[in-house]
């Protein structure tokens, strides 16, 4: 089983127990918590409905108080409306999943984390803040994406370069062309 995956257990393993232990492929004994069905699902459903209502309130308030604008000239309420809609969609998805979810065993929160990858991502983002002015937004976006695709989750060089180029060009088009944001040009002026 890959890291971070949740193992679905048969119904018999849930009867008359609060916790269970299981051996994974590395023959480590992992303590698994059994998710209670009725209580957790009801709280999850209430939370989803609450988040939906918050999203609805944010949409309506952002639209009425600030105005939506349009795609070419977004008004001050545009982002509130979009974020409210996103919250509503995600809460409806979570509500749906609470009805069709299965009994699962959960691993402890910090098990299976790839600490080296996490540190590599943080260092890459940290360097982005300081080197972006010198190297330039577009070039450094390409370099950061290439670093993430090759070091953090290694994929083939050609695929990594193609995706990094597409990402950098898309970021340039969104921020520089569409939104007209001033970004660092770098020493090459790109």
Give a structural overview.
With 190 residues, the protein is of the alpha+beta class. The protein folds into two domains: 113 residues, no CATH class; 64 residues, no CATH class. Helices cover 59% and strands 8% of the residues. It contains five helices and four strands. Strands 1-4-3-2 form a four-stranded antiparallel beta sheet, with no helix packed on it. The longest helix is centred in the N-terminal third of the chain and has 30 residues. The chain starts with 6 loop residues before the first strand and ends in a 12-residue tail after the last helix.
Question: Which helices and strands, and how do they pair?
Answer:
Layout: E1 7-8, E2 19-23, E3 29-34, H1 37-66, H2 78-100, E4 104-106, H3 115-135, H4 137-152, H5 157-178
Antiparallel strand pairs: 1-4, 2-3, 3-4
Helix pairs in contact: 1-2, 3-4, 4-5
């Amino acid at each position: 089983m890959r890291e971070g995956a949740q193992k679905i257990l048969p119904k018999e393993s849930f009867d008359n127990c609060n916790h269970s232990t299981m051996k994974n492929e590395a023959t480590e004994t992992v303590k698994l918590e059994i998710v209670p069905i009725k209580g957790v699902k009801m709280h999850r459903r209430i939370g989803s409905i609450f988040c939906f209502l918050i999203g609805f309130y944010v949409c309506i308030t952002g639209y009425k108080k600030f105005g939506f604008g349009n795609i070419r000239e977004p008004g001050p309420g545009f982002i509130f409306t979009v974020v409210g809609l996103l919250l509503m969609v995600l809460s409806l998805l979570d509500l749906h999943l609470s009805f069709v979810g299965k009994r699962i065993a959960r691993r402890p929160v910090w098990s299976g984390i790839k600490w080296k990858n996490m540190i590599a991502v943080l260092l890459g983002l940290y360097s982005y803040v300081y080197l972006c002015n010198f190297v330039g937004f577009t070039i450094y976006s390409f370099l950061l994406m290439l670093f993430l695709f090759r070091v953090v989750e290694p994929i083939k060089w050609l695929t990594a370069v193609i995706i990094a180029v597409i990402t950098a060009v898309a970021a340039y088009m969104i921020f520089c062309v569409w939104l007209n944001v001033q970004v660092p040009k770098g020493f090459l002026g790109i």
